[in-house]
Amino acid sequence: MSPNLLAILPLLLTLVLALWLRRTLVALGVGILSGALIIAHFDIVQSLGYLLEIGAKQFYCQGAWQWWHLNVLMAMLLLGSMTQLLARSGAVEQFGDWLYRRIRTGRQARIGVVLLGWLVFIDGIFSCLAVGHVCQPLSQRYGIRQTQLAYLVDSNASPLCSLLPFSSWGPYVMALLAGLSFLPVSALEAFIDVALFNFYAITTLGLSLIMAWFGMGFRSIDNTVLAAEPVEPSLTPSQGNPWLLAIPMLTLLCASVGLTLWSGAQQVPSWDVSAWLAKADIGAAMRDACLLSTLVTLVLLMLSGRSIGKLLADLVHGVRMIAFAIAILLCTWMIGAVIQDLGVASLLAAWAKLYLSPSLLVAGMFLLCAIMAFATGSSWGTFAIMIPIGGEIAHNMDVSLLLPVLSAVMAGSVFGDHCSPISDTSVLSATSSGCLPHDHVVTQLPFALIGAGAALVGFQLVNLSVATLFVWFGVIGTALGLLALMTRFYPPWLSARSQTS
């Protein structure tokens, strides 16, 4: 077997097993072990040493603690504990009783999930955790299936973050853009221009609104239609108390924004909000916001009469519930390190230079980045590799296509990460929504492919120098046409009539 094929083997094993066995943790473990064996030339002792090394590096590397990873894990534990506190104490039920008098249909509930995702815009992982955990019990009450909730959560997390310079993605991407010496505009201007042509992210947000409005169904693995069942209110519903849930959530949102800006303001002497965001410590802000909101939740529940013993039991249950997601997240980080050491991303980028035609440059770059992000499960890793390489290729081939190529890199990376069964956001969207990662990936894929098809048409039209207005007509028309075709020829999957409005 050639070295190139041998390097790709762990990825193929991971993806095939994840889709076949429906056991993401097993698939990731096989991928990590096979990659370690290849890197160590099939020496078992060296392979074990390598595994211990990359495992330790996720927390401590080159004399420094990896605070981003540590902060994400602590935030996950705190969010898991907080949501169990709210669920087991009856806070969510009381919020539902209060909400019952204001939300009358499944449509309103689904739109609410989307809008909450838009409010929690700071980070993709943060959005997946917060929206999924908080909306899961509410979704059960209003007839939203778990796979549908996972789709709405995932589709309004990373795609939205990729469009906003004020999210955690903005400073990271702008730093990569600033490294391109031939960039004709500032990094912030380039980010905005790139976001305006991120056809996949924009189409995905639009499709999620359509799915939420019409309540189109999801097919389960055993080929039965997952139709939402109407939930009838009781004859005399209680008034409910929204504040036991609303105050912790508002604390979480306000503290996230405030602490993010504060951490950046400590590093920048001027009153420049964009500079604050560029210097902000997103991980620490996310951790501290989760800690503050958890403490607020504990205080509120104690004041409401819940005993300390029950609160401690709720905290332990929350840690147990989130342990599986943490295990998968750790494995995704480890397999990312294995993939990087195997040089798979660089190999795919080298193939692009050899085989991409100038007439297909933008659309081809979208497909290449989609494959890389799908295989690696990392949009940020694909950004790091392909923004410099894609920019260099476009600069050498046709400088007028520089920004469209960078848009294609962003869009393809988000699409690939959105569909990947080893992506942290895919896994967290599923687990926080209460469904299996495999089920989420399979049921989300048709809608992601609609967005990708529309984006592919748009990028090819840009490559052909079609006017921007007609490009957007092509993107929107393609997305709606594909959705109509799927509804017409595969109604069990998309039948709006099978859902309650």
From TrEMBL:
TM stretches of this protein: 28-52, 72-91, 111-135, 169-188, 194-214, 243-262, 282-303, 315-339, 359-387, 441-462, 469-490
Primary site of residence: membrane
PANTHER family reported for this sequence: LYSINE TRANSPORTER LYSW, NA+/H+ ANTIPORTER-RELATED
Domain Na+/H+ antiporter NhaC-like C-terminal: 161-462
Keywords attached to this entry: Cell membrane, Membrane, Transmembrane, Transmembrane helix
Membrane topology: Multi-pass membrane protein
Domain of life: Bacteria
Name the UniProt record assigns to this protein: Sodium:proton antiporter
GO cellular component, one term: plasma membrane
InterPro entries tied to this protein: Na/H_Antiport_NhaC-like_C (IPR018461)
Organism annotation: Shewanella decolorationis
Localization (cell): Cell membrane
Phylogenetic lineage: Bacteria, Pseudomonadati, Pseudomonadota, Gammaproteobacteria, Alteromonadales
